[in-house]
Amino acid sequence: MAILIDQKKKVLIQGITGREGRARTRLMLDYGTKVIGGVTPGHGGEEVFGLPVYDTVKEAVEAHGTIDVSVLFVPGPFVRDAAIEAIENGIKLLVIIPDRVPIHDTLTIVALARRKGASFIGPNTLGVISPHRAVLGMIGGRIETAREWFRPGDIGVISRSGGMTTSLSYYLTRAGLGQSTAVHIGGDAVVGETIPEIALRFEADPQTRLMVIFGEIGTTQEENLAQAIRAGKITKPIVAYIGGRGAKAGTRFSHAGAIIEGGRGGYESKVAALRSAGVHVAQTITELVETARRIHGMEVGNNQG
Amino acid sequence: MARLYEYQGKAILARYGIKIPRGKVIDTRNELVDLLGEIGLPVVLKGQLWITGRKEKGAIRFADTQGEAEAALSDLLQMTIGKFRIEKVLVEERIDVERECFAGIVIDDEKKSPVLIFSPEGGSGVEAKGGVSRVIDPLKGLARYEVVELIKSAGITGRSLTSLSGLIHKLYSIMREYDARAIEVNPIALTKRGDAIALDCHITIDDYAVYRHPDLGIEVAREFDRPPTELERIAYKVEAKDYRGTFYFFQIVDQIPADGRHIGFHGAGGGGSMFSMDALVKEGYQIANFCDTSGNPPASKVYRAAKIILSQPNIAGYFASGSGVASQEQIQSARGLVKAFLEEGLEIPAVIRLGGNMEEEAIRILKESLSGIPAEVEGYGKDDPPEFCAQRLKALIRPGLFHKIRPFSLPEPFPYGFETFSGILSINHDLCRNCDHKGCIESCRYGILKLEDGVPVLALDPELVKKGRCIECLACEQFCHFKGKKAIRIILPIPGLSEYRERLIDGNTD
């Protein structure tokens, strides 16, 4: 098991004919993702790497039956329409790669997804990878590196930073700890699935034994995670690092979500909330990986004993 | 978030039929005299600043006579609070206030929805005064009755219920039309007659949607706690029209002292950048600027970022470091940096941590291409932590060696050429005729060039190439520079940078 994606799910690429769409379709195909085709209006009838391109999602669904996942590579201003099209055509999971999606567009997608029982990762995400099974988006870069950096295992990785999703997974791999799935939830202030929501998915996933999380200043995700743990909804052990210790209020460091607003979302309050809920909060990445290894060893020991 | 001034916000409210005090934004005494002739006395004069708590800071004055008004205006126009100077003053009639309320709509990241907040008591510290709130469904919008229910639950009745709900109901329409991140009217004045009048207004616009609102005249759609610097404006223009990857830049220190402690910082990815800056700070350095090129930017974007970072005089070193295991093609970063460093004839040391996708090739490009410049440049990969790289930079920094600003002027294109997404690729075919290998053609992974009559020419439809088929990876130019006849010139303009550097060199750093 893994969460969100495996080698059996049927995947559509919206914006397949663009620069990023093409390059990442290659990665997904090579890695084993079951990509069935793509959509770019005006390019219907073309092929990309032998995959059919359709003008509409509807045509893709007619040709292939139910589609499980759509990965969006359309530019930010066009994301809202593309996402609505996917959800209206019955696709239940969207991965929205582009950044600079207007926040009210994201809110509209959230509201529609709730009505239709769909969910989405992003916007502004590198994607999701279930090592040696399938990848969605651009995580891992090229096929060789994606295979080298991510290894199958029982650690669930959640990160608000794309680069850190990969770095953390690589350092875990190097320490002998493979991953069930690694999820970059996206750097925006409002994202489809937040840290606690992904944590709940890992909680329900039998393969995942331990979660490793890269959080950041801004938003209330880490506080809400702490709340979910205290409420008993999440029981698996968690090791976390919170970025942005030295940031001052009102300054944004790249991620639209990484800003302390109105006294909320500061470093200290996040760390305090997580620690009081029993999360191991590390000060450096080295410490994070070492702590993960230690706890993982204890978990494996417990289960065997 | 891009902020609007009070007077801009109020103009929008007025367009929606919300009552605001009569008045005008001015910056001269003559305008004041004319205005007083129109609206009479007493008046309130409000310095237009992007800060809260203006009253306590003295940026809001009350005047009962023309003399008081003139004195207040002259005071305000000379006033600076923090880094903000008052440039405009909003002068308005004084309103007889019976009661003050607060209303605002913010975006709640936990509920993933807009949330309307109302408090029957206005003024500062509203959160403490226990307001009421309601989640708005973006697909349904906000209905008038929902506003009535909400504010009635906070004790508003009678004529005020009608006038207030009318005003608040319009706020959500404004939020949607202008893509606001937040809209806040505090206070809303209720008059004796029960009219609701907006006395103040804060609107912030979503950075990612500014392109939909050219009428707002927002110059730099970024969160700043001060007006953007000129260099930040130049950087923003690079990013504004180029959607390939992200380039984010701001200055932390604007007048960098030549003390050997300030570093030009070039990160990749928000999370990794934070880490990397922490490592520099731990070594006792100060970060001159924040910069992030990520999301798989082409070499041209990384080049422009480097040129902007290197427009900061007196930095003692250049530190590029991201998450360390990047999915983006690190050769793009390497080539962008190489072009910039070569042009600059870089002297200060640079440590470049290019871990991740294609890191071996990226590090090799740096090593091979930069051996001829005065600066010491070291390249590292994913197994070299930022702490180690920061120590390397420390070891390379030379006392008394600071970055000097050179003039920046675009070279003339060679005779043959075509447009790329953000520049011009030009070739000197006379030089090509003496070149045997034509490796420029193979160096291009995108098949842009082909051989015709023994010289490289465009192989594709020029429109396609201009739209982005040539991603500006700079591979052909650098191949030709090091192994060919230096016959390829890729010209990548950075509007405003040349003039900016001229002024720096002339000593006018304003």
Automatic annotation (TrEMBL), chain A:
Cite the CoA-binding domain residue spans from the record.
4-101
What InterPro entries is this protein classified in?
CoA-bd (IPR003781), CoA_lig_alpha (IPR005810), NAD(P)-bd_dom_sf (IPR036291), Succ_CoA_lig_flav_dom (IPR032875), Succinyl-CoA_synth-like (IPR016102)
Q: Which residues form the active site?
A: 255
Q: Which UniProt keywords apply?
A: Ligase, Nucleotide-binding
Q: Which GO terms describe its cellular component?
A: succinate-CoA ligase complex (ADP-forming)
Q: Which GO terms describe its biological process?
A: tricarboxylic acid cycle
Lineage, top-rank taxon, reads: Bacteria
> GO MF terms on file?
nucleotide binding; succinate-CoA ligase (ADP-forming) activity; succinate-CoA ligase (GDP-forming) activity
Could you say which protein family the record assigns here?
Belongs to the succinate/malate CoA ligase alpha subunit family.
Q: What is this protein called?
A: Succinate--CoA ligase subunit alpha
- Organism the protein comes from: candidate division WOR-3 bacterium
From TrEMBL, chain B:
Indicate whether Ligase appears among the record's keywords: yes
The UniProt entry's GO CC annotations, sorted and at most eight, read:
cytosol; succinate-CoA ligase complex
Task: Identify the InterPro entries for this entry.
Answer: 4Fe4S_Fe-S-bd, ATP-grasp, ATP-grasp_succ-CoA_synth-type, ATP_grasp_subdomain_1, Succinyl-CoA_synth-like
* Annotated Pfam families: ATP-grasp_2
**Which GO terms are recorded in the biological process aspect for this UniProt protein?**
succinyl-CoA metabolic process; tricarboxylic acid cycle
Q: Which residues are in the ATP-grasp domain?
A: 10-214
Q: Which SUPFAM superfamilies match?
A: 4Fe-4S ferredoxins, Glutathione synthetase ATP-binding domain-like, Succinyl-CoA synthetase domains
Q: Which residues form a coiled coil?
A: none
Give the molecular function GO annotations: ATP binding; metal ion binding; succinate-CoA ligase (ADP-forming) activity
Query: 4Fe-4S ferredoxin-type domain location, by residue?
Result: 423-454
Does the keyword Transmembrane feature in the UniProt annotation? no
Q: Which UniProt keywords apply?
A: ATP-binding, Ligase, Nucleotide-binding
The molecule here is called Uncharacterized protein
